[in-house]
Design a protein that fits this description.
- It holds the Pfam family RibD_C.
- It comes from Flagellimonas marina.
- This is Dihydrofolate reductase family protein.
- The chain is an alpha/beta fold and 181 residues long.
- It has one domain: Dihydrofolate Reductase, subunit A.
- It contains four helices and ten strands.
- An eight-stranded mixed sheet has the order 5-4-3-6-1-7-10-9, with helices on both faces. The protein has a two-stranded antiparallel sheet with strand order 2-8.
């Protein structure tokens, strides 16, 4: 019998052409309200651990996040950066070196699945190193044409198994895939 273990879940909004934001971090075309957005917000309550790269963390500054603050107060935050430093940070905010053993340790110690919060470059590195288990895409009904790609510059080829698909107002789809390395 296979043991049950936590999964790393990349739960992210994307355009139909695979971008998580446009040029200059533009997210204005993404569906910002409705039942699909409410589902995403509700789903975040299921996670107690979040991982992200420095750029994703700093993106939160545009929306009022203070340096060292926790964007998701109910989660333990692990920000992967070799350069980020805070003089003062909340107890649930941790800076980690970009090392696979750190990822594996966080996953093993988390009381829930681990939420991978955005970041094409970080997600691409995790994909290249086969650390993402579930891909949960909020597929928005528009094309960006340019910007930050879903998996940055990763060229890794993998098969996906569709686990579920939900349709929401505004044309938003949430598709859940198992990544098959």
């Amino acid at each position: 019998m296979e043991s049950i273990k936590n999964k790393i879940v990349y739960y992210v909004a994307t355009s139909l052409d695979g971008y998580i934001c446009g040029e200059d971090e533009d997210i204005s075309g993404f569906v910002a309200e409705g039942d699909g957005v409410q589902k995403y917000i509700s789903d975040l309550n299921d996670y107690k651990t979040v991982i992200m790269g420095r750029k994703t963390y700093e993106f939160g500054y545009k929306f009022g996040l203070k340096p060292g603050g926790a964007p998701y107060p109910h989660m333990n935050h692990h920000i992967f950066s070799d350069s980020l430093h805070f003089d003062d940070q909340e107890n649930n905010v941790h800076i980690n070196k970009l090392e696979l053993n750190q990822i594996d340790s966080i996953k093993a110690k988390s009381p829930t699945d681990v939420y991978l919060c955005g970041g094409g470059v970080f997600a691409g590195w995790l994909l290249d190193n086969e650390r993402i288990d579930i891909l949960k895409l909020k597929i928005n009904p528009f094309l960006l044409g340019t910007g930050t790609k879903l998996f940055g510059s990763s060229k890794k080829s993998v098969q996906l198994e569709l686990l579920g698909s939900e349709t929401f107002d505004g044309g938003l789809l949430i598709n859940t895939y198992k990544i098959k390395y």
